[in-house]
Amino acid sequence: MSSSTLETxxxxxxxxxxxxxxxxxxxxxxxxxxxxxxxxxxxxxxxPDMRCVELKSLKYYMIEFRNRGIFYEAVTNxxxxxxxxxxxxxxxxxxGDFSVRGGIKTVVTAEYRPMDDPVRIPVEAEIDLHAxxxxxVVSVVDEYVRAAAAMGFPEVRIVHGRGxxxxxxxxxxALDRHPNVTEFWDDSAAHLGATIARLxxxxxxxxxxxxx
Length: 212
Known about the structure:
The chain is of the alpha+beta class. The chain has 4 helices and 11 strands; from the N terminus they run E-E-E-E-H-H-E-E-E-H-E-H-E-E-E. The strands form 3 sheets. The chain has a 5-stranded mixed β-sheet with strand order 7-8-10-9-11, covered by helices on one side.
């Protein structure tokens, strides 16, 4: 199922943790074994970061499952994956509460919780990663780029150092898969080693990498 149907809007209070609960009570998909319709309720609970899901687009996203053959377990996890992909929430739980079939009741719960609390960083046009531990680099880059894109920065500069290029590789791998990055390249003028990334507030599937 394509997550491109899903739309988002800026979180009006990103400085505060608060919970959003959504219930889709008429969810329908198709049993891949029998071809018969499955009915149930999808419950979504999440703490937003920079973006919230737009409900009309969520409704149409759910409707797309109506003629799709998919197991309960797969659809619950797919909905979680798609929502996490477009929202990058602080926490999220998706519950698939399906109607009784053949005397058997199934409830599937899938959760997204980052391993550590997100690293809160100021949003500026440049970030120096020397201030962070190596294990934090990927999560810092992910959050920084997401926040910078939401704030409207067209480009950002990420200082990672030269060394053996390990940290540069981690940074550019994170940029390569980030939905808010359209292209990135090495900053040849940076004596400490840096990468410049061009951003967009909306997710992009295609990226351009320059400079090797």
